[in-house]
Amino acid sequence: DKEVRAIFLRLFAQLFQGYRSCLQLIRIHAEPVIHFHKAAFLGQRGLIENDFLTKVLNGMAFAGFVSERGPPFRTCDLFDELVAFEVERIKAEEGNPPKMIKHVRELAEQLFKNENPNPHIAFQKVPRPTEGSHLRVHILPFPRINEGRVQELLQEGLARSQGAPAATRGDKKCVVPAGPPVGMFICS
């Protein structure tokens, strides 16, 4: 499934290459509003008459995309890197399927690493009990829980967690790279 996701990631990176140069930040409201200039985007790419891309740009999903990815200062991800830095690579791979497949596999591997940052930590699955295991008499019943000991353990855990530094997520906000301007991508 990561390879399928990588293919769609490449597709949308190709569709939206240069979108950042068509974003306008409007500051007349209390909260700044980000507007996407659709006509400029389509015109600079020579796709004014393209029904598919026009419908994509007019959809609610794209409006959400602009509001989420429009701010110039936010956490960057793999999509931002593709749109900003891999433009020429994607363009060069269009006629070379083996290179394209290699790039898709690289992207899939990065997607997998993003979802599994610590692959060495694996959770052991508990095997299902064998059939008839409930009939065994040599198994001791589960011991009764000592409520006092449970309270002690909870208090110890709380004391440790209050003294420990707060956990922070590794994502750091940065200025989103703009990438090349839209005019570079005249599509057929």
TrEMBL record:
Q: What range(s) does the UDENN domain occupy?
A: 1-76
One GO cellular component term: cytoplasmic vesicle
Q: Name one GO biological process term.
A: regulation of Rab protein signal transduction
PROSITE patterns per UniProt: DENN
SMART domains noted in UniProt: dDENN
Give the molecular function GO annotations. guanyl-nucleotide exchange factor activity
InterPro entries recorded for this chain?
A: dDENN_dom, DENN_Domain_GEFs, Tripartite_DENN
Residues in the signal sequence: none
**Which PANTHER family does its entry note?**
C-MYC PROMOTER-BINDING PROTEIN (PTHR12296:SF16), DENN DOMAIN-CONTAINING PROTEIN 4 (PTHR12296)
Which named protein is this? MTMRD protein
Task: Give the organism, scientific name.
Answer: Tychaedon coryphoeus (Karoo scrub-robin)
